[in-house]
Amino acid sequence: xxxxxxxxxxxxxxxxxxxxxxxxxxxxxxxxxxxxxxxxxxxxxxxxxxxxxxxxxxxxxxxxxxxxxxxxxxxxxxxxxxxxxxxxxxxxxxxxxxxxxxxxxxxxxxxxxxxxxxxxxxxxxxxxxxxxxxxxxxxxxxxxxxxxxxxxxxxxxxxxxxxxxxxxxxxxxxxxxxxxxxxxxxxxxxxxxxxxxxxxxxxxxxxxxxxxxxxxxxxxxxxxxxxxxxxxxxxxxxxxxxxxxxxxxxxxxxxxxxxxxxxxxxxxxxxxxxxxxxxxxxxxxxxxxxxxxxxxxxxxxxxxxxxxxxxxxxxxxxxxx
Amino acid sequence: xxxxxxxxxxxxxxxxxxxxxxxxxxxxxxxxxxxxxxxxxxxxxxxxxxxxxxxxxxxxxxxxxxxxxxxxxxxxxxxxxxxxxxxxxxxxxxxxxxxxxxxxxxxxxxxxxxxxxxxxxxxxxxxxxxxxxxxxxxxxxxxxxxxxxxxxxxxxxxxxxxxxxxxxxxxxxxxxxxxxxxxxxxxxxxxxxxxxxxxxxxxxxxxxxxxxxxxxxxxxxxxxxxxxxxxxxxxxxxxxxxxxxxxxxxxxxxxxxxxxxxxxxxxxxxxxxxxxxxxxxxxxx
Lengths: 321, 285
Known about the structure:
The complex is a heterodimer of chains A (about 325) and B (about 280). Chain A has about 325 residues and is an all-alpha fold. Chain A has one domain. In chain A, about 75% of the residues lie in helices and about 0% in strands. Chain A has 15 helices and no strands. Chain A has helices spanning about 1-15, 15-45, 60-65, 65-105, 105-110, 115, 125-165, 170, 175-210, 215-230, 235, 240-255, 275-280, 285-290, 295-315. In chain A, helix 7 packs across helix 15 and helix 10 (about 215-230) packs antiparallel against helix 12 (about 240-255). Chain B is globular, with a radius of gyration of 21 Å. Chain B folds into 2 domains: about 5-85 and about 145-205, 3-Layer(aba) Sandwich (Rossmann fold), CATH 3.40.50; about 215-280. Chain B has about 280 residues and is an alpha/beta fold. Chain B is built from 11 helices and 13 strands. The two termini of chain B are about 40 Å apart. In chain B, strands 5-6-7-3-8-9 form a 6-stranded mixed β-sheet, with helices on both faces. The interface of A and B includes residues 3, 107, 111, 117 and 120 of A.
């Protein structure tokens, strides 16, 4: 267990730039863009009458808000937190995609694999530490960074509003950042299971390819997809080629995209589109985890685990350094 | 003598060529063995087989284990330095020490710190900022702090200047080697390890062509400086090799009695380099 901890720590040392700084920089860029938008709004608001922020100074709207309205405002803030965490997670997904492609290839190329292999580390724990870094560590960092960025943005907006004489601090209290983080953390296991086929496929290519793992990882699924479409082979099997693209190519290459499982979750019931609190409630954990009922998720996970086992085998016996 | 490595009929076939062709040898505990061979003779393949990095046919026993099956267990007892360029370039010196200290059960951190204190290495430096010589200092400090029974060195000083090379072998002898430990080393710089070896193996085309300890090497092989008038007589004794220096001939003999040779001229112990050249004649032809 201690060894495994240090193996994951090693991955973090090596990929600190991708795992930690990429989400942080994304968050900062996001905040800067929003700040620029606010400044732009302020400027236009002063110059003209047709756009920008206009306040008449009498807006004490929170006094007129019913408890229900306050609840909705809090829910809207929570949705913003989720959305920002989602954006950061998308960046991390791209990072993890390339991380997996290099994870079992780069050290073969620069021959530092010979150093790692001179230590009493099993290939199984080495590969599993990379899996854990990709599907647990990296998303967890992204989610925490995402929520912090979201809170920073809320505070920024509140400050601007205060400068305009609108005290909306009480609205911020209505959001639930802790609950958002908690829910996001609870979604990581689902994300991990869903991402297994992509993680497995990329690691397998990374462990197997003698050169250019990226090309192999993309070319094989896309190439077979093109062939399948071309000949309409799946039509003969009673399936359309779009099934192949969605369930084979898409799952092998695109399962790192956060929320990819929603097409396999139970149908979304939104009571009222003007009701953010209701929307948020219908998007709860039970909704997300209803994807566990779909065979695509489990078949994908099983295939992913098989490919990870293949990656471990190649890691053990690939002999080219 | 207890054998640390026992190989019988070690064979490894790559697609087009035979890298090891039934190599059979034994390495005893407490020895420093040089495995010398021309490029492509199978040195590295033999080391890889011992380290469990490759598949092979034949019997191979390392410290009582089969390197194919029990690699993880084996690597607690075996260390290796492949060559100077294999430490991960992104790693910091301090991180490397931390990592090995926490993953290797036989690592002695205080030893490693003492070794590093003798160098210019700083914990915050990254490997990519270090010179080749400093990288090998780091690697050596890590490896010497591990209480292993077998140390495998594959061209450990390739590309280093002479100061680092001398220092490398000196540290190994003074601070590391004892009768509990065994060192197996391959290198092309034969003359540098000549004086530290206890045993010598020559490998050619995947076969062990010479396997001897250094004491019997001096008894078995002799180099004689012969004047022109005696050259014909010397040739009758079937020398392994003959070369000309300043109008005289130097002959290399295998298993010819001493008194007989002393009649011909001055008898010397041949250098490993000369012996190697004579043994490997025609390798690249």
